[in-house]
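PROTEIN DESIGN WORKSHEET
SECTION A - STRUCTURE
LENGTH: 175
C-ALPHA CELLS:
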C-alpha cells in the first residue's frame, strides 16, 4: 500500500500523535501535529481565518501525515487525503491516556505541542473525551461514509490493531 496524504483522526487520547510518528518513520512521510500548529505559546489559539487558510495551504503539499481531529476543519483534510486512519479507541482508554499524559507532562510542553504550552489539568477537556463517542462519532461516521471510493479509510479500534498495523508495514517505502 502506498500513501501520499494521510489524515489521522480520533478522540483526544486515542494515540494519534504516537501512531502518526510511528507511521511517518515507517513510510517516510512528513508528520504534522495540528495541536502544535494551532496553539501558540501561552495556549493562544490561531484565529479561525488564519487556521483555515493554513490548512488549505498545508494539504497542498505533495506528501503528509496530518494528525488531529479539529472537527470544524476536518473536511479540508478529508477532501485532500488519499488515506484516512481513524483511531476509534474505547472512551475509557482515551481518558486513561489523557490523564496519564497530563500527569507525566504537567507543567511542561509535550513533544507534539508548541513550546510554551505546558500540560495542564482541565476537567472540560476530560468531559470532551467522555462525550466524544456519543456526540462526535455519529457525525464522523456520516462524513466518512460520504467520502468517494477513491480514498482508503481504515478504522483501528483497539491498541492491538494499531500495533499489528504498524508491524505489517514494510520497513520503509520509497517515494
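SECTION B - SEQUENCE
RESIDUE ASSIGNMENT:
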Amino acid at each position: 500500500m502506498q500513501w501520499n496524504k494521510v489524515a489521522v483522526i480520533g478522540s483526544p487520547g486515542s494515540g494519534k500523535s504516537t501512531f502518526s510518528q510511528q507511521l511517518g518513520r515507517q513510510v517516510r512521510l512528513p508528520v504534522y501535529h495540528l495541536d502544535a500548529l494551532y496553539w501558540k505559546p501561552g495556549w493562544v489559539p490561531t484565529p479561525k481565518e488564519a487556521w483555515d487558510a493554513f490548512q488549505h495551504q498545508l494539504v497542498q503539499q505533495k506528501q503528509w501525515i496530518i494528525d488531529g481531529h479539529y472537527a470544524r476543519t476536518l473536511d479540508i483534510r478529508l477532501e485532500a487525503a488519499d488515506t484516512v486512519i481513524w483511531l476509534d479507541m474505547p472512551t475509557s482508554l482515551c481518558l486513561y491516556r489523557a490523564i496519564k499524559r497530563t500527569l507525566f507532562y504537567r507543567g511542561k510542553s509535550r513533544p507534539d505541542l508548541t513550546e510554551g504550552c505546558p500540560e495542564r489539568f482541565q476537567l472540560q477537556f476530560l468531559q470532551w473525551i467522555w462525550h466524544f463517542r456519543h456526540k462526535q462519532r455519529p457525525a464522523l461516521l456520516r462524513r466518512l461514509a460520504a467520502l468517494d471510493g477513491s480514498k482508503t479509510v481504515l478504522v483501528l479500534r483497539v491498541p492491538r490493531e494499531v500495533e499489528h498495523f504498524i508491524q505489517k508495514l514494510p520497513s520503509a517505502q520509497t517515494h
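SECTION C - NOTES
The radius of gyration is 16 Å.
The domain at 5-168 is CATH 3.40.50.300 (Rossmann fold).
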